[in-house]
Design a protein that fits this description.
The protein is of the alpha/beta class. 45% of the residues lie in helices and 13% in strands. It is built from 13 helices and ten strands. Helix 9 runs parallel beside helix 10. The protein is elongated. The N terminus is likely disordered. Bound molecules: guanosine-5'-triphosphate and magnesium ion. The site of magnesium ion has 6 residues, from helix 7.
Length: 366
């Protein structure tokens, strides 16, 4: 409960989440007063209350993060709950209904393992009885939550490494650069100094895109010429971030298809080169996974995990897709932490991931 509450309130490093010898960032997240300190910090949400004495209060209240997540998942939820209702109109629970439900859950990308968990849980308590779609959805929410609980973790930054290096990898267009911008905003709002590295040296537009995020978040961006060696750039950026005393260095990389061997080799090289400056670097390897991809996402995680040592995920584009269930399948298969979910293109649309909220949102349970 402590963790969910802390996330919901927003802020960085709720004290309840930080255990010795880690040092919390600042005090209560709700107070919005956050000072960097050595030790581990937990990144949840950006500090929402900022002192802006010059400006009039916003006329339209912002939607809460919970509402943004619910809205983001609305399409996945609508599709799923509509199909469940289609199966459970005035029917006793029998083998056929269970089979139909299993099909619905698999079509919703939840994966076989979770589909069977839900149908087994339902069968064990309700077999031969009348069952409503509301009951089915409640059982589904509970089972999905069990699968997700193990992966819903806050991103912890170990600030005994200065900088803590976050390498961001993933297939083209999955949201790497946008996620970096959103994450940099959360971190800088939390009082940390962030440096960005434009490791996508293939496209001029990619470098520009990162520079815009750098300006927005007041984070220096290390970039090199188009076509420069990405590993060399990553190395330089690491040295510069050390010199500058930055708390966090976030390295963008070029989008790549997982079957392009030379690009994957380049990614391996980036990881290797960073390790020369600090054997534990990169400390966090985040993969962005686009929820609209569906089943292929499972494969993507497998491959990037092997090549780049991915140790955490951000599931992007959960808004506007009916395929949000894929997050559950990925959680069941890979058991990697899911630190955030992306629910839009705006800077605030990066939400900490909560198992129970996500499970209830996707199952359409209040
Ligand atoms: N709706 C929605 N769009 C998103 C989200 N995250 C990223 N996008 C959009 O997806 C598109 C691609 O995002 P990028 O951040 O450029 O993706 P990338 O992985 O850096 O792409 P490459 O550099 O080409 O590999 C952009 O139009 C983003 O605005 C999200 O959570 N929701
Ligand atoms: Mg990019």
């Amino acid at each position: 409960m402590g963790r969910v509450a802390a996330k919901r309130r927003g802020g960085v490093a709720a004290p309840a989440l930080v255990t010795p010898p880690r040092t919390a960032l600042g005090t209560s997240p709700i107070e919005g007063e956050v000072k960097p300190a050595p030790g581990k910090v937990t990144v949840t949400k950006k500090v929402e209350q900022k002192a802006e004495p010059q400006k009039a209060p916003e006329p339209v209240p912002r939607r809460s993060w919970f509402q943004r997540m619910r809205d983001g998942l609305a399409r996945s939820s609508r599709e799923l709950t509509g199909n469940i209702a289609g199966v459970f109109t005035k029917r006793k629970l029998d083998g056929e209904t269970l089979q139909d439900l299993e099909d619905v859950l698999i079509r919703a990308d939840l994966g076989m393992e979770t589909a069977l968990r839900v149908t087994d849980a339902l069968a064990s308590s309700r077999y031969g009885k009348d069952v409503s779609d509301t009951e089915v959805r409640a059982i589904m929410a509970a089972e999905v939550e069990k699968v997700l609980t193990h992966v819903a973790m806050p991103l912890e930054l170990d600030l005994s490494h200065k900088p803590h290096v976050i390498l961001v990898v993933g297939v083209n267009g999955t949201g790497k650069t946008t996620t970096i911008g959103k994450l940099a905003a959360k971190l800088t709002d939390g009082g940390l100094s962030v440096m960005l590295a434009a490791g996508d040296t293939f496209r001029a537009a990619a470098i520009e895109q990162l520079k815009i995020w750098g300006e927005r978040t007041k984070s220096p961006v290390i970039a090199s010429k188009l076509g420069a060696d990405a590993a060399g750039l990553a190395y330089d950026a690491f040295e510069k971030a050390k010199e500058a005393g930055s708390d966090v260095l976030i390295i963008d990389t070029a989008g790549r298809l997982q079957n392009k061997t030379e690009l994957m080799a380049e990614l391996e090289k980036i990881v290797r080169v960073l390790g020369k400056l600090d054997p534990e670097a990169p400390h966090t390897v985040l993969q962005t996974v686009d929820a609209t991809t569906g089943q292929n996402a499972l494969n993507q995680v497998e491959i990037f995990r092997n090549v780049a040592g991915v140790n955490g995920l951000v599931m992007t584009k959960l808004d506007g897709t009916a395929r949000g269930g894929i997050l559950v399948a990925i959680a069941a298969k890979h058991k990697l932490p899911v630190y955030f979910i992306g629910v839009g293109e705006q800077v605030d649309d990066l939400e900490p991931f909560s198992a129970s909220e996500f499970a209830r949102a996707i199952a359409g349970v209040a």
